[in-house]
Write a structure and sequence with these properties.
The complex is a heterodimer. Helices cover 0% and strands 51% of the residues of chain A. By secondary structure, chain A is mainly β. Chain A has a single domain, classed as Immunoglobulin-like. Chain B has a single domain (32-149), classed as Immunoglobulin-like (Sandwich). Helix content of chain B is 26%, strand content 39%. Chain B has two helices and nine strands. Chain B has helices at 3-30, 35-46, and strands at 51-52, 56-59, 63-66, 70-76, 86-93, 100-106, 113-119, 125-133, 138-149. The chains are: A mainly beta, B alpha+beta. Chain B: Residues 1-33 form the signal peptide. Chain B: It comes from Bosea lupini. Chain B: Keywords: Signal.
Chain lengths: 109, 154
């Protein structure tokens, strides 16, 4: 599993003002916990996505610190109160310093 | 004198078996976090601040067949306004090698303090959730999950 992590996000395209919408995200990632040992008995170093964050029009909405206990291909869902049209930015930060992002538009009206 | 060597070796065998049993009993316990580790983590974050129960709905399966993927949904009762909202939520596992599972940071823009993810659990254990409100008060909840197949490469 050395494929590049691909984020998948589900945001409703439209919402009415004041509506609370659910956002579901998933990213492919092995989330190596740092607890497993390889065939030689050596610990496989930890490599997980340690931070997920969501912002809307540049303003932070929600974030999550993930630890080793988060499953492979981490899923995260949360809610957002729609007030105006705009764009979400979702960011996943990897232990190795890489960042994966996804941008999704939301129309309110 | 025919009996003695065999009794000796039997005794040795028993000793070896006893050691193996003792090692098996101790070894896995050493490798895992426990109530104390979780309590220490919480103390590091919030000291000895009092914690109330209630307000938290910790939605987890009673029995998890696969410890590698256990769904966890946390929902906290809150109006989620600028004046009164849920700031942070921490989830800890008492029976995993490391106590931390996830920490959420909410804002009033969420509209609802609810989030779901999937976690790994090494064994049957308690999950502890601590929520910090915007006014600084703390709430806690606990849930037990029975794990059929552990999720730590074992």
């Amino acid at each position: 599993m050395t494929t590049k992590p691909t984020p998948r996000v589900r945001v409703p395209a439209k919402a009415t003002a004041g509506e609370i919408i659910e956002i579901k995200t998933l990213i492919s990632h092995e989330m190596e916990s740092g607890q497993r040992k390889d065939a030689k008995g050596e610990t496989i170093p930890r490599k997980i996505i340690n931070k997920f964050s969501a912002s809307f029009n540049g303003k932070p909405v929600f974030s999550a610190d993930w630890f080793s206990a988060i499953s492979a291909n981490p899923y995260q869902s949360f809610f957002f109160k729609a007030t105006e049209s705009g764009e979400f930015t979702f960011t996943w930060k990897d232990d190795d310093g890489s960042e994966y992002t996804s941008k999704n538009k939301l129309t309110v009206g | 004198m025919l009996i003695q060597p065999s009794t000796l070796s039997r005794r040795d065998a028993m000793k070896a078996a006893a050691w193996a049993l003792a090692a098996a009993a101790i070894a896995p316990k050493l490798a895992f976090a426990d109530e104390k580790a979780v309590a220490a983590e919480i103390k590091k974050l919030y000291g000895d601040k009092p914690m109330a129960s209630g307000k938290i709905k910790l939605d987890v399966p009673e029995i998890a067949e696969n410890g590698l993927v256990v769904p966890i949904n946390v929902e906290i009762e809150s109006p989620m306004t600028e004046a009164d909202y849920v700031k942070t939520v921490h989830v800890f596992a008492e029976g995993n090698p490391l106590p931390g599972v996830v920490s959420y940071q909410f804002t009033p823009a969420c509209g609802k303090a609810s989030a779901a993810t999937r976690m790994r659990l090494a064994q049957t254990q308690d999950i502890i959730c601590v929520a910090e409100m915007s006014n600084g008060t703390l709430h806690t909840a606990k849930a037990n999950i029975k794990v059929t197949i552990g999720g730590c490469g074992g």
